[in-house]
Amino acid sequence: MIDGLVAGRLMGEASRRVDKAGRGYIVARVLARNKADEEFIVNVIAFDDASCAALVALRDGESLTLAGGLTPKVWTDKQGIVRPSLDMVATHVLTAYHAGRGPGADDPGA
After folding, report:
1. How far apart are the C-alpha atoms of 94 and 104, rounded to whole Å?
2. β-pairing verdict for 63-76 and 39-46
3. Cα–Cα distance, 52 to 27 (Å, whole number)
């Protein structure tokens, strides 16, 4: 596994899941771009409470940055073209809400 930092936009909504032992976790997909403006899909899973809460608070298309372990993968689209993707176990999630720029940023009680 590779330690990585990925910035991108949430694709759809993050979803809450429960494993066989009854422990909750979150899965999400993030669209990221490299310097050559190529798109990568990052399949994200998070287990710790802070990362899970940050992911479920976001809506489709919102920006975020993730830190955690990366595993490179490939997938084949409907036209048969092989495309790169990444699987990430997110240990940290940073959003505009954390940086004081999201909704409620002017309200110290929010």
Report:
1. 16
2. unpaired
3. 9
Of 25-34, 59-68, 81-90, 93-102, the range with the lowest mean pLDDT is 93-102
Tokens for 82, please give them: 């092989």
Q: Which residue carries 């979803």 as its tokens?
A: 15
pLDDT at 84: 85
Task: Look up the pTM and report it.
Answer: 0.81
**19/100 Cα distance (integer angstroms):** 33
Question: Which segments of 1-110 are extended strands (E)?
Answer: 2-18, 24-33, 39-46, 63-76, 82-95
Alpha helices (H) in 1-110, listed in sequence order = 49-57
Q: Is 65 helix (H, G, I), strand (E, B) or coil?
A: strand
Strands 82-95 and 39-46: parallel
